[in-house]
């Protein structure tokens, strides 16, 4: 088991957002989390990533409890996280953004090699390497964020709504890239608004409601669950 | 023809003093840009640096130019200390709290020196840098010229650091998006420490060089900090390039107003422009806010 989240509770100030989230992720999987706005999906990610300390419960990564570790140590253990919001550095070039992805690494030559590999996977990075990141389109920024996150060599990649605000065609491309990353041996956890697309591409899925995990199943199972269809897929199969 | 020389002289004077303003403003803008802290004590650090130069000269016979490297190192550490012992506790505090904190620092430093050194004006006699360069009827004071040169070198070094080094990149990243920088493993507290060090070292250099051609007294920071604020506002808060543009522009405005209208009114022009910028271009010319 790569990641185990056991009954975590977490709050922002007085507002309790997570009221018992339990889930696990096996190596090599793509696991998706769906649920309504405000269910606490992003908060689960922020708690795994050390931005928020759980009040109760445990986060275990590779057999080690990481619930109280600072973010920079969790990164070193092999977790990479891409925010839901725009997270490129707007006034830095594409290449400078990439270099920031390798901030905690000291192996200069290997970084250069990794960047070359990522340029092949995401050609846009090479094409616009000297361009300010703020001049990229939404889809291009998403690619840059993913490539930058991969420079940390994560074992677990947390993607928070990777397709938010993107055109349908670009959403499909994003999922193609996610599959490609997964095929390279990286375990992926996704939070998605576009539940249908996400479930189709996931091995397993969890449904989060009101700060609790209420359902678990394979991507197909959840996709065909009557209640999920009713609540999140617009009532249509 | 005389008018041409006069205008040239005024431009030169404006650039000479504008370089100092720019160096003061750069530190202020850097600290704001990275941490969103308005350092009201900035002028008092300037005063303290001028006093350090004065003390090195009067007790040890070291010319300000000779003691400059010492003052730079001392102020780098004073900057680190400011973060470590004062501002670190206030990292996620509302702006009002950090304003109150830097304002308190300002008063403590200013009146600390006031008590120890009395309000007297002091001058460094017989400095290494004296006399003027004369080119036909234009004169350029050597001390101011060297100060400008040192200001330029300092700013080039600062830019190169921010632009080409790993830590410099992390400083810019933190300024643009603190949370994302954190998510990539940047130790934000260390970045704040470096930023305070650099910002205060810059104002330290400005203070030390000012002591070669300006009076040294406990209240000298007051005027300079206001001018630095005007420079940063003109250039745009958070933009280091903007601070340089602002400093030079304010220097020129002040000299033109002072020469062609009335010396007594020179600062009126500075703050008149300040208000106009706030009204018509509140983000400044290069600002992100």
Key traits:
heterodimer, A: 237 residues, alpha/beta, Rossmann fold, B: ABC transporter involved in vitamin B12 uptake, BtuC, 11 helices, 2 strands, globular
Q: What's the short version?
A:
The complex is a heterodimer of chains A (237) and B (289). With 237 residues, chain A is an alpha/beta fold.
Give a structural overview:
The complex is a heterodimer of chains A (237) and B (289). Chain A contains 10 helices and 10 strands. Chain A is α/β, with parallel strands linked by helices. Chain A has a single domain (3-232), classed as P-loop containing nucleotide triphosphate hydrolases (Rossmann fold). The radius of gyration of chain A is 18 Å and the shape is globular. By secondary structure, chain B is mainly alpha-helical. Chain B has one domain (2-280): ABC transporter involved in vitamin B12 uptake, BtuC (Orthogonal Bundle). Chain B is built from 11 helices and 2 strands; from the N terminus they run ααααββααααααα. Chain B has a two-stranded antiparallel sheet with strand order 1-2. In chain B, a hairpin with a 2-residue loop joins strand 1 and strand 2 (138-141). Chain B is globular and about 60 Å long.
């Amino acid at each position: 088991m790569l990641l185990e989240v056991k009954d975590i509770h977490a709050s922002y100030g007085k507002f309790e957002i997570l009221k018992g989230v339990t889930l696990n992720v096996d190596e090599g999987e793509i696991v998706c989390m769906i649920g309504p706005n405000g269910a606490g999906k992003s908060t689960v990610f922020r708690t795994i990533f050390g931005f928020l300390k759980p009040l109760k419960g445990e986060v275990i990564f590779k057999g080690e409890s990481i619930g109280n570790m600072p973010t920079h140590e969790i990164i070193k253990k092999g977790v990479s996280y891409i925010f839901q919001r725009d997270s490129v550095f707007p006034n830095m070039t594409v290449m400078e953004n990439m270099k920031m992805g390798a901030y905690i690494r000291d192996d200069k030559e290997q970084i250069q090699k990794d960047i070359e590999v990522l340029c092949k996977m995401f050609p846009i990075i090479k094409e616009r390497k000297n361009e300010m990141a703020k001049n990229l389109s939404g889809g291009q920024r998403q690619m840059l964020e993913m490539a930058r996150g991969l420079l940390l060599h994560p074992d677990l990649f947390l993607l928070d709504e990777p397709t938010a605000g993107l055109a349908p065609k670009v959403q499909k491309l994003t999922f193609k890239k996610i599959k490609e990353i997964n095929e390279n041996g990286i375990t992926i956890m996704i939070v998605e608004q576009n539940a249908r697309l996400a479930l189709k591409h996931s091995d397993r899925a969890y449904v989060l409601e009101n700060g609790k995990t209420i359902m678990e199943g394979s991507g197909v199972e959840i996709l065909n669950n009557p209640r999920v269809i009713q609540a999140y897929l617009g009532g249509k199969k | 023809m005389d008018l041409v020389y006069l205008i040239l002289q005024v431009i030169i004077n404006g650039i000479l003093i504008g370089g100092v303003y720019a160096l003061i403003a750069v530190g202020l803008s850097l600290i704001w840009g990275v941490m969103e802290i308005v350092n009201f004590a900035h002028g008092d650090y300037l005063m303290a640096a001028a006093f350090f130069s004065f003390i090195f000269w009067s007790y040890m016979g070291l010319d300000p130019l000779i003691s400059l490297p010492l003052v730079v190192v001392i102020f780098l550490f004073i900057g680190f200390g400011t973060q470590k012992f004062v501002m670190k506790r206030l990292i996620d505090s509302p702006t009002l709290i950090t304003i109150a904190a830097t304002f308190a620092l300002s008063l403590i430093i200013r009146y600390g020196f006031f008590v120890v050194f009395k309000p007297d004006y002091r001058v460094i006699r017989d400095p290494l840098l004296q006399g003027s360069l004369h080119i036909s009827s234009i004169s350029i004071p050597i001390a101011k010229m060297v100060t400008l040169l040192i200001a330029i070198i300092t700013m080039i070094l600062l830019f190169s650091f921010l632009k080409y080094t790993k830590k410099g990149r992390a400083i810019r990243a933190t300024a643009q998006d603190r949370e994302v920088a954190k998510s990539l493993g940047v130790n934000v507290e260390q970045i704040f420490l470096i930023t305070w060090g650099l910002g205060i070292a810059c104002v330290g250099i400005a203070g030390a060089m000012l002591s070669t051609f300006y009076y040294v007294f406990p209240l000298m920071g007051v005027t300079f900090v206001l001018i630095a604020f005007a420079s940063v506002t003109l250039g745009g808060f958070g933009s280091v390039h903007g601070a340089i543009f602002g400093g030079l522009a304010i220097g020129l405005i002040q000299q033109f107003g002072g020469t062609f209208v009335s010396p007594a009114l020179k600062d009126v022009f500075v703050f008149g422009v300040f208000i106009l910028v706030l009204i018509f271009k509140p983000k400044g010319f290069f600002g992100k806010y």
